[in-house]
Specification:
The protein has 330 residues and is mainly α. The protein has 16 helices and no strands.
Length: 330
């Protein structure tokens, strides 16, 4: 596979992962009666069970490639990318409101892409900084639109839900949003490193291993969730089970496998930009669910995101000087 083909395959995998991850934002709409803790426990338990069933036929071969550091890495990835991240996000939304939390956590692509500039295969700052800044501008526009309360859905609820009068709680919420940003950024960076260390483990198997470990740790959520937040009737149980299994299979199993494939094919400075697809598809699904079109600022933000990804792909291609060197006869 040539470098350009590998880049395109990586971008396609990142796009697919974003399309599936965007479904997570619809889960609370489909099962509005389920508490965040119950929904998290259901999703990750289903993720673990499905992952274990899919991994079982290949377990004898896969386990040969796993040593103690790899298992520790899987535990760390499961915590930072799933359980800890989600916990901080829930607290942030509760105390600081949806808009502020989304604005801060939406900086994940920028944080990951910026960290990737340290890698030896990263393009020079003059080529990689502009698309990162463009993605930053897109996130800022989305956040501004949410603060204005004109975006529909969650945005209109900010004034009612964010307890801005209590400065301490608001600061706690903002701090948790920053912690969620750091947690998921650490996951994206660490996961990319582990994928490079274990090339003998396929992207799909690595996703399944993460699911098994996450499912095991999700049992810790089940006990408090069952004591406090059990659904009241059969209809709520059916919706919760359907959402848990659907999100686990699509977003966690398939989405994570595609993301791991992108992690293996793309440099980290480029991989960070792929996360914007999750935001794009979350907006698309939200528009379809709410039966409305995007506002002017939302259209501009989406265009900026798309341009930033295309620009980032081009920035990681050969420069004009490099191309000239390659075409010069010896």
């Amino acid at each position: 596979m040539t470098a350009s083909t590998s880049r395109l395959a990586g971008v396609a995998s990142g796009l697919g992962a974003g399309a599936l991850w965007g479904l997570v934002f619809l889960a609370p709409k489909v099962a509005p009666d389920a508490s965040p803790m119950m929904m998290s426990a259901g999703r990750y338990l289903a993720y673990g069970l499905i992952a274990a069933a899919l991994l079982a036929p290949r377990w004898g071969r896969v386990r040969l490639h796993l040593d103690a550091p790899a298992w520790k890495g899987l535990i760390w990835l499961s915590l930072s990318g799933n359980l800890i991240y989600y916990l901080f996000l829930v607290v942030a939304v509760h105390f600081a409101g949806v808009a502020a939390s989304a604005l801060i956590v939406g900086m994940v692509p920028v944080a990951v892409a910026a960290w990737g500039l340290r890698d030896p295969d990263a393009p020079p700052l003059s080529r990689s900084a502009p698309p990162i800044l463009l993605a930053t501008a897109a996130v800022a526009l989305i956040g501004w639109e949410a603060f204005l309360g004109r975006g529909g859905g969650h945005a209109g609820d900010v004034a009612a839900n964010a307890p801005g009068g209590d400065l301490v709680l608001t600061l706690i919420g903002l701090g948790c949003a920053v912690a969620a940003l750091i947690s998921w950024s650490i996951y994206a960076i660490s996961n990319s490193r582990w994928m490079a260390r274990l090339p003998q483990v396929s992207a799909h198997d690595w996703s399944l291993l993460t699911g098994v470990v996450t499912g095991g740790m999700a049992l810790l959520l089940t006990i408090p969730a069952a004591l406090r937040d059990l659904p009241d009737d059969a209809d709520q149980w059916v919706r919760l089970a359907g959402v848990s299994v659907g999100i686990a299979a699509l977003a966690s199993i398939l989405g994570n496998a595609l993301w791991n494939q992108a992690s293996r094919l793309l440099p980290l400075s480029m991989l960070g930009q792929m996360i914007v697809f999750e935001t794009l598809f979350a907006f698309l699904y939200g528009f379809l669910w709410e039966g409305r079109g995007p506002t002017g600022l939302e259209i501009i933000a989406v265009i900026l995101m798309i341009v930033s990804v295309i620009w980032c792909v081009r920035a990681h291609g050969p420069s004009v000087a490099e191309g000239a060197e390659k075409t010069t006869p010896d």
